Amino acid sequence: MTVSTAEMAQARVRADAEARAPLLEVAGLTRRYGARIGCADIGFDLWPGEVLGVVGESGSGKSTLLACLAGHLAPDAGRVLWRDRDGRARDVLAIPEPERRLLARTDWAFVRQNPRDGLRMGVSAGGNIGERLMAGGARHYGRIRGAAADWLARVEIDAGRIDDTPRAFSGGMQQRLQIARNLVSGPRLVLMDEPTGGLDVSVQARLLDLLRGLVREMGLSAIVVTHDLAVARLLAHRLMVMKDGRVVETGLTDQVLDDPQHAYTQLLVSSALRL
Ligand SMILES: Nc1ncnc2c1ncn2[C@@H]1O[C@H](COP(=O)(O)OP(=O)(O)O)[C@@H](O)[C@H]1O
Ligand SMILES: [Mg+2]
């Protein structure tokens, strides 16, 4: 198949428009649980190729925010606009359910803290990865299996384990498999909730290294929720600090961590230093 000059020009115009428009535009996002605040009045833009870190102690509203962004949880107020492949700004809440399900398996990725929540535990490692390719339209068995084997290698899992189920994997391997499953489809937006949270410190370091490499190589646009400032420092370009459901400080990662302005951020940074 030959690609016409007109098609190439069109693709260039699209890529150009994409680079100049935010991938996500979030405004006034609020979610309560009864009288309790989950998150309140959150607003930010996420640009293509940008990694936004969301930090704050447990209970500060990070997971609630992420669930609202992914359309898992309906906010009480506010708006999340998503720039689709055609450059159209779409209200995430208004996307019809079948399309949202398809997006969740192709353009969007959601890496959960517990790999058991993000993997099909009874399905082989290869199947876990292949499933997302099939959702994106892949049909050729040999090519799907080949891509799955490539991705196992990329996340440092022996290709000989392709037919094993994740039950037989260590926690670190399961998390790496979850990452492969999510990234194989070339997602345009990656949401991660405490991706290194449940792991031993040595396993965490290796996973973080791997994640950082993938984020850079693939130029991923991502939101990484973490209570661990070291994770934020390594992965995020920009930080948003949350406390009691609200954003108390935002800025470039180094700025926020090296020269925190808000008393709460200062406390977070100084308590991380004492560890
Ligand atoms: N399903 C729920 N029902 C009631 N309250 C909840 C629920 N999920 C979260 N919350 C409350 O919302 C606030 C934010 O929680 P969460 O988003 O889980 O924070 P984080 O991810 O930063 O730990 C907390 O006060 C928490 O207790
Ligand atoms: Mg959480």
What do you see in this structure?
There is one protein chain. With 275 residues, the protein is an alpha/beta fold. It folds into two domains: 17-107 and 187-274, Rossmann fold (3-Layer(aba) Sandwich); 120-185, no CATH class. Helix content is 43%, strand content 23%. It contains eleven helices and ten strands. The strands form two sheets. The chain has a six-stranded mixed sheet, with helices on both faces. Strands 2-1-4-5 form a four-stranded antiparallel sheet, covered by helices on one side. A hairpin with a 2-residue loop joins strand 1 (24-33) and strand 2. The radius of gyration is 19 Å and the shape is globular. The mean pLDDT is 93. The structure holds adenosine-5'-diphosphate (ADP) and magnesium ion (MG). The site of magnesium ion has 2 residues, from helix 2.
Strand and helix map with partners:
Blueprint: H1 5-20, E1 24-33, E2 36-46, E3 51-55, H2 62-69, E4 77-83, E5 89-91, H3 97-105, E6 108-111, H4 115-118, H5 125-135, H6 141-154, H7 171-183, E7 189-193, H8 201-218, E8 222-226, H9 229-235, E9 238-243, E10 246-252, H10 253-258, H11 263-274
Parallel strand pairs: 3-8, 3-9, 6-7, 7-8
Antiparallel strand pairs: 1-2, 1-4, 4-5, 9-10
Helix pairs in contact: 5-6, 5-7, 6-7, 7-8
The site of magnesium ion has 2 residues, from helix 2.
